[in-house]
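User: Some background: our group keeps a shared notebook of sequences we're curious about, and every so often someone picks one and asks for a predicted structure to add to the entry. Today it's my turn. The entry only has the sequence so far, pasted here. Could you supply the structure so I can complete it?
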Amino acid sequence: MKSLAPIALTALTSLALATPLVATAEPAYPLKPVKIVVGYAPGGSADAAARLLANQLSVRMKQPFVVENRPGAASSIAASGVARSAPDGYTLFLGSNANAINATLYKKLPFDIRKDFAPVALVTSFPNVMVVNPSMPVKTVGEFIAYAKAHPGAVNFASSGIGSSTHLSAEMFKSMAGIKMEHIQYKGSAPALTDLMAGQVQVMFDNAPSVLPFIRSGKLRAIAVTSAQPQPFAPQLPTIAGAGLPGFEVKSWYGLFAPADTPPAVVQALNQQVNAALQDRSMRDQLATLGASPEGGTPEAMRRHVEQEVTKWAAVIRQSGATAE
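Assistant: Of course. Here's the predicted structure to add to the notebook entry:
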């Protein structure tokens, strides 16, 4: 009697060939709502940039992108939470130059902006604007410096938190101008600007998107911009460098990050849509209204940018003596 083994083997082989292969490709992303965590209170420039981006990504990626505000510690609380999140692309972080600053400003952080995140894309950049309460009898950088020297201890500057660009812009200004100012920190730009307009503090070096509405309404007086060149949103404003402090330059930025180990395909999908959003005319017009410029680029370019920013701000912190601890 012949063995049935060859017949059975032939039958199994034929069945295997006739059976369709099971797809092994990863599911499309995103399949559910995505959260963008912002480390500042609602109403500031970070919040505005995140909501513009979230609206664009919601339309382009066919899922809701929702902004969540977690203010505190110059956005380190938000960054720490996202760094510990699942690396699946559903919890993202809107980082900024504050995070590059914090890498040196804080001796101990529960995360490393260079190692614990996967850069997605640089979103936007903008200068800060030096603004004062309209009751201040100054209209130029020179007049402000003279006033501060004539009234030692009478000038307080507001910031959106220790380590923010609004904080270190003022520290740089104070050091380079040789004046004394007291730092009053807030949990975000919105409460700081409220007190500035109320006369509780005298000056702030805030992000252009936050202060432009108040400058235009006359509630704040703009003195100068912190960029190296005058800006299209206020071409009449001089630069601080050109108004008496050569070499002074600060530019803020926001970028989108995912937790480290997020699948490259997810990072690439987000990068592609962020870049597309930044080419959209309505997005560019809205950013221009805020005094911001679209950026974009590859994840690797953003990684290099972060490294350069950490190095730059480390030097500024050492020179100013600023510390958060």
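Suggested note for the entry: The longest helix spans residues 299-320. Residues 92 and 258 are 5 Å apart (CA to CA).
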